[in-house]
Amino acid sequence: MPDEQPQVVEEEIRQSMLSWLIHSAGGFGLLVLLSALIVFLGALIVLFASRRPAVIAACFPWLLLPLWLGFLGALWGGMQWFLIVAGSPIFPEMRHLGDAVSTALISPFLALLLTFPSYLVLSAGLFLRTIAAGKQTSAGA
Predict the structure, then answer these.
(1) How many CB atoms lie within 10 A of CB 122?
(2) pLDDT tens, 93-122?
(3) Which of 40, 42, 64, 136 has the greatest CB tally within 10 Å of its CB?
């Protein structure tokens, strides 16, 4: 029986969806989360502190910060994937490729998901402040 090859038994890894999400997002997920929180709090502060629609509209470019970090995480995951493929003499294990691909996919998803509330707050605030400014202008005329 010299032709028999040893069988490698991989142990099954069980984890919750939240722990997988945290592991997959990695450092970029934390950066996206922090930047989205800062942008959301900044949007609330500007919305309540300013009565002028132009000031609120000037905050819209800041909404892109978490998105840029999410796309940077996607590029990082793609580079990890290529490094894993290039560094292995044979086809690498799927779990290693899965980690890189999940990092590449989870970061932009988190960025889009976490940026959406800030966008809604700024859009609704800008709409309401514009209507209020229009009523003040027509009442003053």
Answers:
(1) 23
(2) 777 788 888 888 888 999 999 999 999 999
(3) 40
Name the pTM for this structure. 0.76
SS3 2: coil
Q: Model confidence at 83, in pLDDT bands (50, 70, 90)?
A: confident
pLDDT, mean of residues 30-57: 90
DSSP string, 6-74: PPP-PPPP---HHHHHHHHHHHHHHHHHHHHHHHHHHHHHHHHH---HHHHHTTGGGGHHHHHHHHHHH
Residue 110: partners with Cβ closer than 8 Å, 6 or more residues away: 25, 29, 32, 33, 70
Dist. CA 56–CA 129, nearest whole Å? 9
